Structure formats: C-alpha cells, structure tokens
C-alpha cells in the first residue's frame, strides 16, 4: 500500500474520539471480557487484554493501536508489554496465549500446531505472523501491518474501509476471540530429577 | 430457551422482543420474533446500522461471552432474554 497523502489530524482525531466514545459506552461489558482501556490519547489507544476464565487470570499483553491518518489508513496494531509498552516478540505473546485459529481446510499448512493431549483443541497459528525473536503483526484485514505487507498487495485497505474492519472494536474482538478468550488457565509442570549428593570425592 | 419479556411495551406480540446488537462498535436495537432464525436478526441489524456491503457469511454473531450463534438456528434455541446484548463483527478470514 503506498503511503497515504496524509489526513488532516483534526479529521483523524474526530474519528478516533468516536471510536473511544463507542468503547466507553459499553466499557462495563468489555471489562467482563478482560479488556482494560489504559490510555486513550490521540492517536494512540492502549488496551490491556486479560484472560477471565480460570484462576489466576493472566495479563497476557496490551494492544497499542495507533490511529494516525485514520481512516485513509487503517489503524496500526502492536502487541506490547502493558507496563513498559515495549514491543513483545512472538514467543513472548505465545507464553500467555498461542493465538490459534481453526481453518476450514482439511489439510492444515505446515504451521500446524497441536497442543498437549488428544482431546486438546487443534489449530494453526495464522493470526500472528512474524519472524522468531521479533515482534509479530496481527494478520487480519483492517490493520496497517496486514495491508502494508507485500503478501497482501491484492487486498487493499480501501476494499475494507467503512465496511466493518479496521475499527477499535473489530481489532480488540480479534485479539480477544483468538487470544485471551480461549485461555482457561495455567498448566504447571514439575520435573523431578534424581541427583546423587556426593559427600566427598575418592582420589 | 428464550425468556419472554411478556411482549413489547404497549402490549405487543408475546413472540416478539427487542435485542441490542453491537455492530462494529455501534449498538442498534432490533425487534424480532423469537421463533425466527438468527439470520433474520443479523440482516435487520446490518440494515439498521447501514452495514450492507458485505455478504452474510462474512459476519459472526456472538453473545457477551464470545459464544457464536449459528445463523440457521432459531433464536429461541439460545438463552436470550429481552434486551440481551449481542455482538456482530466481521470474521478474521482464512488467510494469514
């Protein structure tokens, strides 16, 4: 996607505030989903995403959503540490939630990931894309990173603009549906190792 | 399974009740027959919210807990009370 001409910040701010107002109107509902709007200062909204099923709840990550040049350009989404706002790597996000998605195809691609146990849900990790050790991007239409990616040049943001994608709620719902909502708790594994205790060494 | 609210205000049909559907962040109130299929509610919510540019399969309807409602199921097969909050949003799509 070529760089936009640049939107009057006043227009983007107005649309940003409209998104925030719509969120605030149903904030108590979103709070039950584990969403916490930590900060909303144009052009950025910082929303912490927490798991709500099981105990203890997990503060999985925060989504830093940037609405500059909105909505000629879609919002930019980064998954960050909620305390430092440092971008998380793909592995760091996966420690809290693997962000898996079922596909309708009979043969999942090579990125097939199977969780422990035969009864565990099976999915593929297509929602987050990125290289190992680097911050991933949310691979859904309606995000700047998706439409700027060379693999998606045929799927312009302008096909989606104003048709449901690329709003604050849409982005948060994807992060919740595939990220924090399916998480039911933590699984602890303890590995015991037999190790002889040596009182002295024989010469 | 639907809890009937005793009809719409003013003594309307006992089979009709109003649900609130949040379409891409904006809530709309939709009055439907409890015996109607879910896609009736979805189509009306999209019409009221002026989101008619995408085909029906592109959308997903969920309750507050994120449970998806099947479009071909009847509304009365779900535990919906009058005024219940539902969310209608686009599916993320297949490709990564």
What's the topology here?
The complex is a heterodimer of chains A (203) and B (96).
Chain A: H1 9-25, H2 27-32, E1 35-41, E2 44-50, E3 59-66, E4 76-80, H3 90-94, E5 112-114, E6 122-124, E7 128-129, E8 137-138, H4 144-148, H5 168-180
Antiparallel strand pairs in A: 1-2, 2-3, 3-4, 5-6, 7-8
Chain B: E1 16-23, E2 26-33, H1 38-48, E3 59-62, E4 85-90
Parallel strand pairs in B: 1-4
Antiparallel strand pairs in B: 1-2, 3-4
- Helix/strand-derived category of chain A reads alpha+beta
Proportion of residues in helical segments of chain B: 10-25%
Report the uncertain regions of chain A: 104-121
Radius of gyration of CA atoms of chain A, rounded to a whole number? 21 Å
Largest interface pair: A-B, 35 and 23 residues
Number of strands of chain B: 4
| Rg of chain B computed from alpha carbons, rounded to a whole number of angstroms | 13 Å
The helix/strand class of chain B is alpha+beta
Question: How far apart are the termini of chain A?
Answer: 73 Å
Beta content of chain B:
25-35%
The biggest beta sheet of chain A reads:
4 strands, antiparallel
Instruction: Look at the structure and give the mean pLDDT of chain B.
Output: 84
Quaternary structure annotation? heterodimer
Overall spatial form of chain B: globular
Report on this model:
The complex is a heterodimer of chains A (203) and B (96). Chain A has 203 residues and is of the alpha+beta class. Chain A contains five helices and eight strands. Chain A starts with 8 loop residues before the first helix and ends in a 23-residue tail after the last helix. About 9% of the residues of chain A have low confidence. Helix content of chain B is 11%, strand content 27%. Chain B is globular and about 35 Å long. The chains are: A alpha+beta (203), B alpha+beta (96). At the A-B interface, helix 1 and helix 5 of A face strand 4 of B.
